[in-house]
């Protein structure tokens, strides 16, 4: 995992319309890395959308580029990017 659980992040998240299409805008969200999950491959983030069929449907729409900044390293972890 590149981002240890507990790391505080600022994410630039693409905004989607009601049909899951990118509308050309982004919003900034404050997030905390919780886990790495088993389905995540490569350098991707999975954004939690809640529980239930609607949440699963919304989660399936997110396949877009965004940016992420590390604001605070996880407690007890070294620098995420040292170099």
Considering the chains and any ligands shown, give keywords for the structure.
MltA, Murein transglycosylase A, 83 residues, mainly beta, 1 helix, 3-stranded antiparallel β-sheet
Helix content: 10-25%
Q: What strand line-up does the widest sheet have?
A: 2-1-3
Oligomer status? single chain
List unreliable stretches of 5+ residues: none
Characterize the biggest β-sheet.
3 strands, antiparallel
Measure the end-to-end span.
17 Å
Total number of helical segments?
1
Description:
With 83 residues, the protein is mainly β. It contains 1 helix and 3 strands, in the order ββαβ. The chain has one helix at 53-61; strands spanning 8-16, 22-32, 67-72. Strands 2-1-3 form a 3-stranded antiparallel beta sheet, with no helix packed on it. The mean pLDDT is 80. Pfam families: 3D (PF06725). Residues 1-72 form the 3D domain. InterPro entries: 3D_dom, MltA, RlpA-like_sf.
Short description:
InterPro entries: 3D_dom (IPR010611), MltA (IPR026044), RlpA-like_sf (IPR036908). This protein has about 80 residues and is mainly beta.
Secondary structure blueprint with pairings:
Blueprint (H helix, E strand, L loop, with lengths): L7 E9 L5 E11 L20 H9 L5 E6 L11
Antiparallel strand pairs: 1-2, 1-3
